[in-house]
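Quick one: Glycosyl transferase family 1 from Escherichia coli, C-alpha cells please.
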Amino acid sequence: MSIGVFKLYKNKIGGTEKAVENLIDILTKNSLQVRCFSAINAQEIQVREDNRKTYLFQDNTAYEESKLRFYIKYLFFLSAKSKDLELIISTDIATSSLLLLIGFFRYNKNKIICWEHYPFDKNSIFWRKVFKFLLSLNKKAVVVCNSHKEKDKFSFCKRVVIIPNSIKTQKYKRIHQGKETLDLIYIGRIVKDKGVERLINAVINHPSTKKYVLHIVGGGQELEYLKSKYKNNNQIHFHGPSLNTNVFLAKSDVFVSGSYFECFPVTILEAMSYGLPVISMDISGGTSSVISSSGGGFVCQSQIEFQEKLTYFEDNVKRTEHGNAGFLFVNRHYSEEIVSAQWMSLINRANSQEN
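--- reply ---
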C-alpha cells in the first residue's frame, strides 16, 4: 500500500513534525511504503533526509509574498503528488481541504485521513468553512484527532477517530538527586502563544534562595529578541533549535512551560517519559488533562503559583515521585506499540473500503 503524508513544514522542530516522524517510523516498521511531502522549508534546521522521504522545497518568502499564488501552486503540487497514492494522510486543515477538493474531482478515488494537530477552532473561519463543506462531500474521509476535547469540535463529522501521538518511551525510571542548582528545561517554539517570556519572568523573579537555570531549546520569531533582552542574565540559557532534545531532557530536573494553549502537549509527554516532573501555565485543557490524569506535575494559574511549585520541586524526593508517575503514565498510554496498533487498525479499515 502506497501512503503519502503531507505536512506544512520541512526543517522545523515542533509537535506536528515530531508526530509525523514517529508515524513514518511506525508505518515503515509495518512494511508500508511511505513518502512525506512538505509545503514550506522553514529552514530552522538543516538535516539530510532519509531516502524514503520526498519533500517539496519552498521557502517562506513564496508564502509571504502572495498567499493566493502560493495556494494555487500548492494545489497543483498536491494534485500531482497524490495521484498515484492509495492513502493520503494530511496534517493541517488547509492541506486537508485542498486534498478533499482534488478528491472530489477524482470521484473520491483517494482515501484521505485528515490528521488534525492544531485546535480546530484556532484555524481561520475561511478554512473551517471550506473544510466542513468539502468533508461533507466525501463519505470516506476520516478525521483523526488526539483527544476527546478535540473530537467534540468535529461534531459535524461522524467519522472521527481519536489516536494520540506516540512518544518514544524510556526503559527505566529516574531517581532524582539533591542538587544546589536546579536545571529547568523548556523545549518548543519560541513564539508569543508559547509564553516563553512570561516563563522567563516567573523564573528570574522567583524569591527562592535556591539557584535555578532555565534552558530554552527551540527556534521561532521571538528567539533573537529574547536572546538580546536577557543576554546578561546567567539564569537563562538559549540553545536554539536542536534535534537532540533527549540530551537536554536527560540532564534536566524539571520541565517548565509558559504556553497559553496546547492541543496535545507532545513535548510535555516526552519530558514525562524521561521521568521529569512538569510545571505548566497552560490552563486551556490539553496540558491540564494530561497532567491531572498522570500526577506528573502541576498546572498553574498565576506566576505566584508557578513559583510555589518550583519551590515544591526543590525536594528531590518529590521530583522523583511525580516524575515516576508521569513516566508510568506515558508508558501505559502513549508507547509506540499502543499507538502503532491503533494506526494500523485504522489503515486496514481504510484499505478495505471499496473505491
